[in-house]
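Reminder to self: tokens first, then the designed residues, so the page reads top to bottom the way the pipeline ran.
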């Protein structure tokens, strides 16, 4: 299967990114043809003014994918803006996207609620996302739960294109990553907006400090506790083996001290991320290598993009007629 997925450039990837998407995306490369990109065009929908920051964030995310095991000899990793054909397809798709479809996008609706002034870029966000996938002929799109609506919109737009112009675009299906919900330190979905993140490449001490900040209730230290509604336990269960998770659940029932449960979680997190961080630090010292990976990835992606755009342009009636009578 050809897999296409994007990730927004950010200054620090966190555990939610890793457990929620990255880990599965990387392991999918073993039996799929993966194209993953850093969505720097999309990133402009968060107000930005310093170009260097965006470049650094792109590099951070690319380095992180490599550190987490993405093999650039197998998968293509690229920067969205290195494949500018996406902008052309995007325009064409806007002409067959009903406004009602975009009005219903929850990403747009929630931005509306947060802020009075919403720009057209944010409104069009799902159309650009659709172009990302359709341009490369993605068959499956590995995403978390929160992106399902965008994939539905993509499918809808692709069907409209095909019913107008014939079977030119591949209709993709979402491929839900296996861990849809990763809670942050306050129990809400882990996200920079909620200031509840645990950074993926944090030092051991920083991980311990963050884990100690996880909200817990004030049940007395030795009293029995419910594991299932506890964020410490929930996070542990996401990363531990079944038997280890069962052991911690028993400790909760027996009346674990939260400090003990947190130490268990912190140890496991450190264990999980140590190798990733080491590789990340190593790759960070070799920027030219990471840039060369992005260059190679862009070349592979553009090969597909140029072919597909050719078909799209012909279908739409651009260029000179093929037969001259
Ligand atoms: N919207 C996605 C996110 O916020 C990122 C993204 C951009 C994407 N283009 C995509 C994901 C195409 C999948 C396919 O995480």
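Designed residues (325 positions):
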């Amino acid at each position: 299967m050809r897999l296409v997925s994007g990730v927004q450039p950010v200054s620090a990837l966190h555990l939610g990114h890793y457990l929620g998407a990255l880990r599965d995306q990387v392991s999918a490369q073993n039996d799929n043809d993966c194209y993953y990109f850093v969505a720097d065009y999309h990133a402009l929908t968060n107000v930005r003014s310093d170009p260097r920051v965006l470049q650094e964030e792109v590099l951070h995310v690319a380095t992180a994918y490599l550190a987490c095991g993405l093999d650039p000899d197998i998968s293509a990793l690229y920067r969205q803006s290195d494949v500018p054909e996406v902008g052309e397809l995007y325009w064409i798709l806007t002409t067959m996207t009903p406004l009602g479809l975009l009005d219903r996008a929850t990403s747009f609706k929630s931005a509306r609620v947060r802020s009075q002034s919403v720009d057209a870029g944010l409104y069009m966000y799902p159309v650009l996302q659709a172009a990302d996938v359709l341009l490369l002929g993605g068959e499956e799109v590995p995403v978390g739960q929160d992106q399902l609506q965008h994939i539905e919109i993509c499918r809808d737009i692709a069907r409209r294109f095909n019913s107008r112009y014939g079977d030119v675009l591949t209709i993709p299906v979402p491929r839900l990553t296996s861990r849809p919900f990763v809670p942050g330190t306050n129990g809400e979905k882990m996200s920079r907006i909620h200031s509840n993140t645990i950074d993926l490449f944090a030092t051991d001490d920083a991980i311990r400090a963050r884990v100690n900040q996880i909200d817990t209730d004030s049940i007395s230290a030795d009293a029995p506790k419910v594991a299932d509604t506890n964020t410490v336990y929930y996070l542990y269960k996401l990363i531990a083996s079944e038997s280890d998770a069962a052991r911690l659940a028993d400790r909760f029932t027996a009346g674990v001290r939260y400090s003990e449960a947190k130490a268990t979680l912190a140890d496991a997190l450190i264990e999980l991320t140590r190798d990733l961080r080491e590789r990340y630090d190593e790759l960070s010292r070799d920027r030219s290598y990471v840039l060369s990976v992005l260059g190679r990835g862009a070349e592979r992606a553009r090969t597909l993009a140029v072919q597909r755009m050719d078909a799209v342009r012909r279908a739409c009636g651009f260029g000179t007629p093929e037969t001259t009578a």
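The chain has a mean pLDDT of 94.
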